[in-house]
Amino acid sequence: MHYHRLVSALVLIGAAWLTAIPAQATRIKDLASIEGVRENQLMGYGLVIGLTGTGDDITKSVFTKQALINMTKRMGLGLTSDVYRQMKTKNIAAVMVTAQLPPFVRPGSAIDIQVSSLGDASSLSGGTLLMTPLKGPDGNTYAVAQGPLAVGGISFGGKAAKAQKNFTTSGRVTGGAIVERAVDYALPPSGDIIYQLHETDFTTAARMADAINHRFGAGTAKSVDPGTVRVMKPARFRGDTVTFISDLEGIDVAPDGPAKIVVNERTGTIVMGQDVRIATVAVSHGNLNLVITESAEVSQPNPLAPGTTTVVPTTTIRATEDAGNLVVMPMGVNLGEIARALNAIGATPRDLIAIFQAIKAAGALQGELVIL
User: What domain range includes position 78?
Assistant: First the structure.
């Protein structure tokens, strides 16, 4: 009961705070990105060594054994086929290495990498990643990774019990990859700069174009569609694209978006936007409590009398229903008024989900209901 009251109080306080302040302005830097300026994904296959018996079982993991054989041959070890067949080491693990190649990064720069087990290794703790080429979608090698892993978890135990915290089959190497090839990014020296909004919206695109024109003059920016704004560089910034983009990124724009209520039925989480409105609707809420108890009654004969002891089960069923409160919410109420009205009838987060679904089905919810 105290938990539900606390949740309701937090929802009410958050709703009052949201409705008390206007829409906050956001920098263009956080609303949109320049077309073509993005990260690129890299991936590679490698081996982690130095494990304390927690690696792959190479008698079962064929790809791990083959990778080990290929590595020893490249190192110049002329082992016979019998030796390869007798390999039983468990101190090595096959892994997939992934990384994000930032834009404008130059050869020689260091980037972080993520290492994840591919075979049946139980832990990568204490392991070291051997030199692994990281390739892009085009098949070219853009970075080379190597280094000791940092695994944010522990796992230990025996045959009868095991203790584990977090995941031990995945780890990171900070600055573990060296960039060998850069992706060509070229900012337009004198042409237009195209911004792509992270969340497409007609109003936000129009406001962004208006804010840029107000700062640099009419005709500088134009909203092409709800997700694109084209900006023409003024004459005074010719040859100085970096300074112009820096000034653009600092302009504040008040973003807009559709009214939404996002609910997660599995966790009971509800997030409502401040623009959510409802038509006039009446909501009634009542709780049905069903209590079933079972007990056993023992019947036995008198002393020295014939007969046997008998156990007779008894079941008691009691159903109670709290009185339902009918709350009328007038047309056009905002987020804070919705929260206060629903809290007045003692609705829990899971009750609110059912209530919002019913309001949406009744056609009184002026917004989108998203159920995860």
Answer: 40-152+167-179
Distance, CA of 12 to CA of 337 (rounded, Å): 9
223 and 241 belong to one structural domain: yes
> Average pLDDT per run of 10 along the chain, which is 372 residues long?
43 42 75 89 94 86 84 79 76 94 92 93 90 93 94 63 72 94 75 88 93 92 93 86 90 87 80 76 58 60 70 57 57 63 68 78 80 80
Residue 315 lies in a domain: yes
- pLDDT of 18 reads 41
**Same domain (yes/no): 63, 174:** yes
Residues 269 and 358 in one domain: yes
**Which CATH number is 195's domain given?**
3.30.200
For residue 203, give every residue at least 6 positions away whose Cβ sits within 8 Å of its Cβ, in sequence order, or none: 256
Residue 272's DSSP bridge partners are 261
For residue 276, give the amino acid letter.
Answer: V
Look at residue 144 in the predicted model and tell me its pLDDT.
96
Beta-bridged to residue 231, according to DSSP, are 193, 221
C-alpha angle with apex 312: 309 to 317, nearest 5 degrees? 165
| Residue 305 located in a structural domain | yes
Q: What is the pTM of this model?
A: 0.67
Say what the pLDDT of residue 12 is: 42
pLDDT of residue 21: 40
Beta bridge partners of 225: 228
Are 280 and 352 within one domain?
yes
Q: Which residue has the tokens 């229903």?
A: 321
- The residue out of 197, 226, 253 marking a domain boundary is 253
Cα distance between residue 3 and residue 209, in whole Å: 47
Hunting for tokens 């401040």 — which residue is that? 274
Distance from C-alpha of 200 to C-alpha of 203, rounded to nearest angstrom: 9
Q: Is 171 found in the same domain as 68?
A: yes
Residue that is last in its domain, among 253, 272, 290:
253
Own/partner pairs for 114-117, CB < 8 Å, 24+ apart? 114/170, 114/171, 114/172, 115/46, 115/48, 115/149, 115/170, 115/171, 115/172, 115/173, 116/169, 116/170, 117/93, 117/169, 117/170
What per-residue confidence (pLDDT) applies to 11?
Answer: 46
- What is the domain count for the chain? 3
Residues 144 and 89 in one domain: yes
pLDDT at 292: 44
